[in-house]
Structure prediction request, 753 residues.
Amino acid sequence: MHFTRLPVPPPYPPTRRQPARAGLAMGPAVGTCLPGGALPLGVLHEIEPEGGAEVQHGAAVAGFAARLLARLPAGRPWLWVAGREDLYAPGLVACGLDPGRLVLACARDDAAVLAAMEAGLRGGAFAAVVGEAGRLTRLGARRLQIACLRHGSTGLLLHRWPYGRATGAEEEAPAAVTRWRIGPVAGSVTAGAGGFGPPRWRLELLHARGGVPGEWIVEAGERDAPDLVRVVAELADVAPAAQRRGVG
Amino acid sequence: MWLPNWPMLRLQRSGAVSADQPAATVVTERGQRRLACVCPVASEAGLRVGQALAEARALCPELDVHEATPEEDAAALARLAEWATRFTPLAAANPPEGLWLDIAGCAHLHGAEDGAGEETLCATIARRLGEAGFPPRLAVADASGAAWALARHAGRRLHVLPPGNERAALEDLPIGLLRLDDRAVAALRRVGIRTIGALARLPRAEVAARFGALPALRLEQAGLSQAGGIAEEPIAWPMPARPWEEIRHFAEPIAAPEDLARALALLADALAQRLEEQSLGARRFVARFLRVDGITPAIGIATARPVRAAGYILKLLTGKLETVDPGFGVEAVALEAQALGSLSASQAALDGKPDATADLAATLDTLIARLGEDALWRPVAQGSHVPERAVGRAGPLAGVAWPAELPDRPLRLFTPPEPIEATAPVPDDPPLFFRWRGRVHRIRAATGPERIAAEWWRRSPDPTRPAHDFIRDYYRVEDQQGGRFWVFRVGLGGVPRWFVHGVFG
Prediction:
């Protein structure tokens, strides 16, 4: 019997160690849960709403993302792709973002949003690309993540379900570097001062590659503050997270 | 439409020939100078077309002789056809002395009641042309051949033939009005057929066997088909010029996607070269695929700034090529550049750094190709207090300046505002709670009101709606869960109605 010698597969290319990337300061408390003490840039992050009406309009998620964009290194513009055209540019000014550097795009559906995000990331012409979509498959996240790494743009995927969260669409194993959950929290009104303070959120770090999960009550940092958020009170670890997820 | 003596009248109008002096144009035919066209004064003097010039000179010594210029006549006729497009979109020159006008569906635009439109339209055309010095002879018929013959038949200046009357109208017309060549006319005359009616009564197969296919075709085009029906006249209607289009015709229809892509590459190269010669670029490219079954699928791309690099255009177009259904094959592919803009040759930076704007434009073009031309924009601040009108749109490459400080505005704005059920203790107070999308929001803090009135100069007053319907009192409220909303009330003094206009982030 004659056996043909099978070709020996080439060895896997040596894993390239990613160079240390710049990070975005999140304050000392949140930073301890993140790799390198700061939010890594040039990678993909996912942000999802906590529950309630926030799932439909995604305002807190957008506010968090807008303040994050405003703290990225200046120069290149940002791209914001969404299925609905309800992002209001004058509201971005309060988040410290210059709307003149923002390119808005409207896509037909979730798949088109993700495809446009990938196209935007691939050029490397944008400092960050934000996309609003309901569902992200592991493969899609992986593609976005690779596009981020190749071209050095930061990707932000904001989960949003304009008609309510789809049932049965449980999340797959995460492919993004971090995954955040955010929802508004009452309590930052300065009574009698005739105005509202910065928005207050419950911020939950669900997953961080090279980091550990955590949960905080935070306030958005002031416009010229270096940190993205300021921790108001740290929630006890024993807080039943699963119960809170059921809200809404 | 027949314009008798067109070459002569054209010369008269151009001032080269005086109207009250006998004049004629001549051609050289087999070494002999013969008259090609004579003016009315000359024909009264006994001159006629085809006469030898020497004979004509003998009859009429003061004859003003001009060389015939058929090309110029045809060009002038084409210009006249262009002028006639004001009456119908389909107007074509029919050299040497006529125009085709397809007035199907146009007549009613000129006549008040049904049926009179065609006469009114023709009278208008005749009057306008008569004033210009070209009295025309017009005939309207269902069959093009019938219209041609009736226009040239001595008789009325305007002849509108009702549908189905071709046979009676053409019965006694001479055979020469059937647009046959001279030999066929002579042959038919020789066997005693002098009228169209006589020819139409002969068996069609025998006519075709004896005199060729042309007489039978002309009869059918004149509406005298024995089987009924009218043969279509192949008229080359002039199409709007597409100066920046490249087209390739293929000997055999092509269908494979690779072939289509190769054809596009050829066209893009040719177009890019032409654009480069003129230092031009284009912001829109449309590729049309002319299929054998007459359907023309098209794909188009748009770019953020003028481009002309063939490879670049091709890359964007190829992404859309899969949407083209070649059907039974594509006979020709055309690529047109639209929205031209100047684009001078530029040199890359000497330090070898990539051009950031070029990178951005390239990325934007990919996105435009994917999402559509209107799907990308930059927000522009506009001087309006009305929230819906405070933001405009500019192109994705536009430089836009925003003020650093603005009044507090929500991050999401709903258009239109969504109605809510709200309860306020005092009409001027913010609500205590409101119900929106099936959820009750209890208000724990509020600021306001901020009064925004509609811009009265933008709308015409609507007497059915009270003025205070256009005044909104905005409140910024926070509910128990911490959600911050922008709600407003209209209906000052009357029954208040509440809306939520946005959400703060």
